[in-house]
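Per reviewer request, we include the raw input and output of the structure prediction for the construct analysed in the revised manuscript.
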Amino acid sequence: MKITRTTSEPTRAERAQPNAGATSRASGTPAKTADSGSGRVQLSDMSTRLNQLETQFSQSSFDVNKVGDVRSAIAEGRYQVNAGAVADKLLASAAQLVGRKA
């Protein structure tokens, strides 16, 4: 029985070898290479974008005390859901997704 490769996916041996002109699989853009002294590390442009998003969301503010109060209310069964408000926001979100203003 003969087995042939049917995809262009690299073999295990090829994946283990560092390649100089690598491109990011996700974006197809050239990967950035850094020599750590003991090996080689390649970072794609996607890693830069992810770092920007992490920074952006880590700077968002929220009221820690309010979150704690809501968490306690849920745990104690005191939290009441306003079904009308949830429905309104759900419809507005769906309308925004399809390109209409609610």
